[in-house]
Design goal:
The protein is an alpha+beta fold and 200 residues long. Strands 1, 2, 3, 4, 5, 6 and 7 form a 7-stranded antiparallel β-sheet that branches. The longest helix is centred in the N-terminal third of the chain and has 25 residues.
């Protein structure tokens, strides 16, 4: 049986330029993707800092309210922070977070409000700032109760995920793949925490 014209192999002299072109395209796409991601110290997903108003640390929050939040219930900010003085400070932070997240959604169509759990650090090859990246992220909804914004409802809305920007840097700088269950490969520095911030 004679092979059809479509079955004829591509000559070597033709396939080599095609392979080289595909590799150049692949590299260009990778460079383009890297350029879209801010890998500097301004990126909250790599350099988390406890800001005066732009973040909220859940250290000291009511354990029962935290448990309710993590199992998917809606909780009030006043249930998380029952001390009146702490609650007043917290509400100032929460208003700032809510307003910034609302602005990002209305102007850019982005959901940027998340709770982070765990902070990882490593030897920084990109600058003098110390990396401090949330390890796990989960999107949240923050809704004011009343026009005065003196109370808010907080609930989890998305699925939990590994910080994609952290994974990108670990792959780029250390050739470290996403860990599998039972893997012993972990970032060198790690500490547990729970905090909320706007990732824009």
């Amino acid at each position: 049986m004679e092979p059809s014209a479509g079955d004829e192999p591509v000559p070597t002299e033709v396939s080599r330029p095609l392979s080289r072109r595909a590799e150049l395209v692949r590299r260009s796409v990778a460079d383009w993707k890297n350029a879209l991601i801010d890998l500097g110290g301004r990126n909250n997903l790599l350099h988390y800092r406890d800001l005066r108003l732009g973040t909220l640390d859940f250290t000291g929050a009511d354990p029962a309210a935290i448990e309710a939040l993590l199992v998917g219930r809606t909780v009030m900010i006043s249930a998380l922070f029952r001390d009146p003085e702490r609650l007043e400070q917290t509400l100032r932070r929460v208003r700032t977070l809510h307003n910034k997240a609302k602005e990002n959604f209305e102007e850019r169509g982005l959901e940027t409000l998340s709770i982070g759990c765990g902070l990882a650090s490593w030897e920084n090859k990109r600058g003098t700032w110390l990396p401090c990246a949330p390890v796990l992220l989960r999107q949240v909804s923050l809704r004011p109760v009343g026009a005065a914004q003196d109370e808010f409802e907080l609930c989890l809305t998305g699925e939990i995920e590994l910080n994609p920007t952290l994974l990108h840097v670990l792959k780029l700088d250390f050739d470290c793949e996403r860990p599998t269950r039972g893997s012993q490969n972990r970032p060198r520095g790690y500490r547990a925490s729970l905090s909320m911030s706007d990732s824009s």
